[in-house]
Amino acid sequence: MDFKVSVVIPAFNGQRILAKNLPQVMKLEADEVIIVDDASTDNTVSFLSRNYSQIKLVRHFHNTRFPQTVNDGFRQATGDVVILLNQDASPHPDLLKNMLPHFKDKKLFSVTFNAQTQSWAKGSFKNGFLGFTNGEIDNKIHYSLWGSGGGAAFRKSIWKELGGLDTLFTPGYFEDLDIGFRAQKRGYLIIWEPKAIISHPHPESTYKKALPPNYLSLTFSLSQHLPALLARIFFHPGFIRPVLMALEHLPNIVRFRLSERSYLKVTDENLFAKFN
User: Fold this and answer.
1) Quick count: other Cβ atoms within 10 Å of Cβ 100?
2) Fewest C-beta atoms under 10 Å: which of 58, 119, 160, 211?
3) What are phi and psi of 204, to 5 degrees?
4) pLDDT surpasses 70 at 224
5) pLDDT band for position 225 (cuts 50, 70, 90)
6) What residues contact 189, with CB distance under 8 A and at least 6 apart?
7) Cα–Cα distance measured from residue 172 to residue 155, given in angstroms and rounded to the nearest whole number
8) In whole angstroms, what is the distance from residue 125 CA to residue 273 CA?
9) How much is the CA Rg of the chain, to the nearest whole Å?
């Protein structure tokens, strides 16, 4: 089966980084490359217009941040498979050869790439919270909890079915974990392919991380989570700030969870059993 392949790169003040990495992206010979410029204040747009007229350039005139920028890129993509890369990620030449055959499995949602410093995501539910760690870096294909927003390929039809990244995560943190978790709850698969290599040694993320690592947590068992959440606030009082900010979105979260129920096919126990 032949797949049409799109590459989507969200960009922000990325002229220097894109000048370094785009030559490697173009060597992939994907069917199209889409760059979504999120209202850069440097010369990113003029650099791309001068040097890469073959690229489909989508411009934002005000900064919308990562989830919306990625969603806009995917909406423009015409490929069956869409590669999502950070502007500071550089793919190895044989990336397509090593990841595309996996998409013959119609249940496969995503192939997450081997960034060499990070591997597949191993998930668990412990002490009332969803937890995750990097799995061992080896030469084996592994299931992954999500496909990295910095470097992964996604089946466009399933991405569309899921509604893309949830913009409730704006400015951006854990939105890739969220869509991966939702996909697997619907019965789709995500794998890590060690031979699908990108260079991403010191991520200069498309956007500065606006939130500290413990700012957001995805939870799925309220009866276990609430006691654990109260305990965390008690022992770490600073955690109350992100909790209060999250409560502002609680009505939307509840509505979304209720609408998602009818699509769920995989239990939490079966999902996490893949990582044990």
Assistant:
1) 19
2) 160
3) -100, 75
4) no
5) low
6) 105, 107, 108, 109, 143
7) 21
8) 11
9) 19
- Calculate the alpha carbon distances from 260 to 124, 253, 266, 268, 273 in Å: 21, 11, 12, 14, 22
Q: How far is CA 51 from the centre of its chain?
A: 28
Distance from the first to the final alpha carbon of the chain: 33
Task: List, for residues 165-191, the tens digit of each pLDDT value.
Answer: 998 888 877 899 999 999 999 999 999
Structure tokens at 115: 């960034």
How far apart, in whole angstroms, are the C-alpha atoms of residue 47 and residue 57?
A: 11
Considering the chain, what is the average pLDDT of its residues?
87
Closest CA to 1 of 147, 155, 140, 112: 155
pLDDT at 218 over 50: no
Residues 206 and 68: beta-carbon distance below 8 Å: no
For the chain, the DSSP string reads ----EEEEEEESS-HHHHHHHHHHHHTT--SEEEEEEES-SSSHHHHHHHH-TTSEEEEESS---HHHHHHHHHHH---SEEEEE-TT-EE-TTHHHHHGGGGGSTTEEEEEEE-SS--PEEEEEETTEEEEEEPP-SSS-EE-SS--TTEEEEEHHHHHHHTSS-GGGTT-SSHHHHHHHHHHHTT-EEEEEEEEEEE-SS---SS---S-TTS----S-HHHHHHHHHHHHHH-GGGHHHHHHHHTTHHHHHHHHHHHGGG--S-HHHHHHTT-
Beta bridge partners of 81: 5, 155
CB 210 within 8 A of CB 172: yes
Global confidence as pTM: 0.84
State the CB neighbour count (10 A cutoff) for residue 46. 11
